[in-house]
Amino acid sequence: METMLAVENLGKSFKDKKIVANISFEVKKGEIMALLGPNGAGKSTTIRNIMGIMYPDEGSITFQNNQNKEIPRNKIGYLPEERGLYKNVKVMDILLYLAELKDYPLDRAKERALELLKKFDLEGKDKVSVEELSKGMGQKVQFIAAILHEPELLILDEPFSGLDPVSQELFKNEIRGLAQNGTAILLSSHQMNLVEEMADRLFLIHRGTKVIYGPLDDVKKQYANFKCTIHGVNERSLLESLPEVERVEQTEESAVLYLSKDVQPATWLKNLPAEMDVQELSIDRISLHEIFIDIATDKNLLKREGDLDA
Amino acid sequence: MRNTKKVAKWEIKRNMKNKTFLIGLFISPILFLAFYLIPDLFNNSDEDPVSTTVFVNDQLGVYEDLEATVQQAGAEWELQPTDISEEEAAGALESEENSAYVFIDERAFDGGVLPVYQSEEISPLFMNEVQLLGAPLQAMQIEELGLTPEEATVIAQGVVFEDASAGAAAETEASAGMDEDLLRSIVPGIFAAAVLLSIVFTGMAIFQSASQEKKDKIAEIILSSLTPGELMQGKIIGYFVLGIIQVIVFIVLVLPVLVWKIDVPILEYLFVPELALMLVIAILGYLLYAALFVGIGATMADISTAGNFQGMIMMLPFTALIFVGPVFSDPSGIWAQIGSYIPFTSPAILILRLSLLEEWPWVEIIIALAILVVSVWVFMKLAGKIFKIGILMYGKNATPGEIWKWIRA
Fold first, then answer.
1. Inter-helix orientation angle B362-390/B273-299, to 10°
2. Do B3 and A83 touch (CB under 8 A)?
3. Tens of pLDDT along A129-161?
4. What is the pTM of this model?
């Protein structure tokens, strides 16, 4: 697959504080690459550096293997984290202006704008003033503005924040569709469930540095161990004595057992002693959501895993 | 440059579709016309019918002289000869309004006092005005005395005290010829000042536009398609065009009225080569202020939260007003020169001086223009640096310290 964007060793400081350091990743044609991290991790800073809105202190950003430094602005669609549109202008006017800035032919833009407005349930809103739109509608208009000129690389900073479930679904389908048609998509988010559903690969960033980078499935396989949740009152010592248990989190009536990496769930289940109080039991992999929270709250589970890995 | 043009086009289009802007566009010339025309209207209706009928019982044969005197003085009198007697006059006045009887007979030579009978309703100034008639009678008196015409002139001249300081003498000497010259040079000056003022005011909208862009948080989307420099230039050019549109609207609405109302060949005075230089100065002034406004606009989250620092910079274009007084009293004096060399005041002061002065001080003009051009360039650069960072800083105003750091970066 053709690489649309390559970020190498990106570093940026404000004043004396390093915001991001040593960030390297690629976005390929037709894939959805997710940039994950808690608030303030450096996602937006990374994206702004890519967009040329900020200038990196270190490292390089290369588009589509072209070596000259010029950013191919016309081929990039961008939905920034800070949402906004000119207030007292008509929806169509602003869409056409933004398309014009991207050198997209006017008549095509008009046609596509109407099409997309219809797709996003905004039919007939083209002559409405922006200030009359609801927040969600405004966000849809911005999304349309980002994809109107058929970009080859689409960068979405928190595209789902503030959307209702129906609109989220709409956005998800559209983003997937674009990827299938060959658009390279870089999306940042902190909503893990959505990322888990959509992303092909992910880059997890915390405090400005890389924590995990790789295909979603690999990441899951590598980091998302099995965990067993048991509802029932049991002695902590009993639970800890079970094989392959790395860590126990217990509340009064339930316990979560984090199992080691190479555990075979079926075999492991046979080890459960008969006297154990089991009202309910489930075994599943640790979700991205949990990994994320783990990292963000510095429980260092993954770090330990990382150490084990190394 | 293409992106700059797109931004400029957008700013123009956006404003031309904006009701507030459109209302503003027409309201200032209309207000101007209203202030100009409305007092005129009242004046006419008040003063038309007031004309005093003055009946003259002339026994000395000076009626024609009197008529000539009245006409020359421009008094609103209707002079009529009559041979009514003093006793009858008192009776006749009771039934008449706004009229008076003047009796001119031998008493003019005996005591020099002539009786005047006036109706009740008459202009309070009438008794002053009626003294006009004394002049031809005095001439007759002198003639009666049998003096030579030379002697007569000397006496009739009387004795007058006159202000003899040098300036005043020169002024009175020149005043007759100056009027036209002054108009000749002041008409393009007024026009250039109107252009400057109009584009500077419209230019203040740049400031609005830049801070609004931050408030609406659209700057980032726009900047993903073009560079901050292009955005800034586009705004400056766009608002310049809007300013010119304002000037054109003003001209279209106001100039015909002025030409119709004022008895001066305005158009002839307006389109002279001097106008070109003044317009160049006005445009340079606009660029300087535009750079200031766009830079400052980018440092502010919202106009209502403007700090002292930003407020002071906003006031810079108006510092020219400080110099207006001294420049008027002495257009080539030291204050005028200082004013011409400070970039923020020089556009207004130069235009003012060029309108007042008959001989243009070319050396000063060239130095002042050079300073202005250099400052425009420097401030554009600075504004560019501030704009680049400021436009993306959301939620708070930049402090002077931060701005200084951006400039040095």
1. 30
2. no
3. 888 888 888 889 999 999 999 899 999 988 888
4. 0.71
Say what the pLDDT of residue A303 is: 46
Q: Do A83 and B217 lie within an 8 Å CB cutoff?
A: yes
Nearest CA in chain B to A93: B14
For chain B, state the CA radius of gyration. Answer: 32
Across the range B160-172, mean pLDDT stands at 49
How many CB pairs (< 8 A) connect A and B?
A: 65
Nearest to A192 by CA among A290, A79, A306, A310: A290
Q: Is B216 on the interface with A (CB under 8 A)?
A: yes
In chain A, which among 9-68 make CB contacts under 8 A with chain B?
48, 51-54
Cβ neighbours of A105 (radius 10 Å): 12
Residue A245 CA to residue A261 CA, distance in Å, equals 10
Q: Residue A212: which H helix or E strand, with range?
A: strand A209-215
Tell me how far apart the alpha carbons of residues B305 and B297 are, in angstroms, rounded to a whole number: 11
Instruction: Note the residue count of chain B.
Output: 409
Edge-first strand listing for the sheet containing A58-63: A17-28, A3-14, A58-63
B239 touches B206 (CB < 8 A): yes
Looking at CA atoms only, how far is residue A71 from chain B in angstroms? Answer: 10
- The predicted pLDDT at position B162 comes to 57
A86 reaches B (C-beta below 8 A): yes
> ∠ CA A19-A20-A23 to the nearest 5 degrees?
175
> What 3-state DSSP class applies to A158?
coil
Question: Does A100 sit within 8 Å of B6, measured CB to CB?
Answer: yes
B218 contacts A84? CB cut-off 8 A: yes
Rounding to the nearest 10 degrees, give the CA dihedral for residues A228, A233, A238, A243: -10
Segment B254-280, tens digit of pLDDT: 888 877 777 767 777 777 777 888 888
pLDDT at B180: 62
Q: Identify the CA nearest to B9 among candidates A97, A114, A102.
A: A97
Q: Do the chains contact at A74 and B225, CB–CB below 8 Å?
A: yes
Q: How far is B14 from chain A (nearest CA, A)?
A: 7
- Residue of B225, B396, B399, B405 to mutate, interface with A, max A Cβ within 10 Å: B225
Q: Say yes or no for a CB contact (<8 Å) between A101 and B222.
A: yes
d(CA A22, CA A7): 10
**Residue B381, token pair as written in the block:** 């650069």
The 10 Å Cβ neighbour count of residue B378 is 13
As beta bridge partners, residue A7 has A25, A61
State whether residue B223 sits within 8 Å of chain A by CB.
Answer: yes
Question: Chain A contact for B59, CB < 8 A?
Answer: no
State pLDDT tens for residues A11-60: 888 777 888 888 899 899 999 999 988 888 888 888 888 887 778 888 88
Which residue would you say has higher pLDDT here, B120 or B196? Answer: B196
Strand, coil or helix: A5? strand
The nearest alpha carbon in chain A to B6 belongs to A101
Encoded amino acid at B287, one letter: L
Interchain pair A142, B224: CB under 8 A? no
**pLDDT number for residue B389:** 81
- Distance between CA atoms of residues A153 and A132, nearest Å: 31
Q: Does A76 touch chain B (CB under 8 A)?
A: yes
